């Protein structure tokens, strides 16, 4: 019931009333900047909410937080999930650029590799966009039967059997 052996008084019906020391339940989670940076980093790595929540430890209890707690206290970071990888890459470029500006040869080499990788990704995005533009829309594509009929007409053009395809009830299959 309570930690005390003697009641503090009686209630309206004569039952003993015990006071509790402190508050009940687990203490409320406190967000720290260290945890916020960790959540941002893990989002940039593409981790799921469940994995991230398992890695964030409440400093007062020493236990991992739950997914609802993660969503409640780190809503701003979670809303930026899609942009976190780009932010991480941008920060890496900044640091490599600064080190290269200060004369670090290794940083210049790393910056060159990062630029080449970035250019390849840009070319890949352009190629994907061109392929998507080239693909006909779903309404423009022919169905299986229409495509077979069209192929039959194209293959029979200029032959003596081409007129047979125009007979009523003809099916290419």
Report how far the terminal alpha carbons are from each other.
83 Å
The profile of the biggest β sheet is:
2 strands, antiparallel
- Spans of at least 5 consecutive residues whose pLDDT stays below 50 are none
Q: Order of strands across the widest beta sheet?
A: 1-2
The SSE string, one letter per element, is: EEHHHHHHH
Q: Strand percentage, roughly?
A: under 5%
Query: How confident is the prediction overall: mean pLDDT?
Result: 82
Indicate the structural class: mainly alpha
Question: What is the number of beta strands?
Answer: 2
Q: Could you say which overall geometry the principal axes of the C-alpha atoms support?
A: flat
The radius of gyration over CA amounts to 34 Å
Helix content: 40-55%
Helical element count? 7
Structural summary, described in words:
Among the domains are: about 35-80; about 90-135. α1 (about 35-45) packs across α5 and α5 runs antiparallel to α6. With about 170 residues, the chain is mostly helical. It is flat and about 110 Å long. The chain has a two-stranded antiparallel sheet with strand order 1-2. It contains seven helices and two strands.
């Amino acid at each position: 019931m309570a930690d005390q052996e003697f009641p503090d008084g009686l209630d309206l019906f004569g039952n003993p009333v015990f006071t509790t020391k402190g508050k009940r339940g687990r203490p409320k989670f406190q967000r720290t900047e260290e945890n916020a940076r960790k959540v941002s980093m893990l989002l940039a790595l593409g981790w799921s909410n469940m994995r991230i929540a398992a890695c964030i430890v409440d400093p007062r209890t020493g236990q991992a937080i739950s997914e609802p707690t993660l969503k409640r206290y780190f809503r701003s970071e979670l809303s930026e999930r899609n942009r976190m990888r780009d932010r991480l890459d941008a920060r890496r470029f900044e640091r490599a650029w600064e080190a290269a500006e200060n004369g670090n040869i290794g940083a210049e080499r790393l910056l060159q590799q990062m630029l080449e990788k970035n250019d390849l990704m840009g070319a890949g995005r352009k190629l994907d966009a061109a392929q998507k533009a080239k693909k006909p829309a779903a309404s423009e594509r022919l169905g299986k039967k229409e495509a077979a009929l069209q192929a039959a007409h194209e293959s029979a053009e200029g032959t003596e059997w081409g007129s047979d395809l125009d007979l009523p009830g003809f099916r290419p299959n």
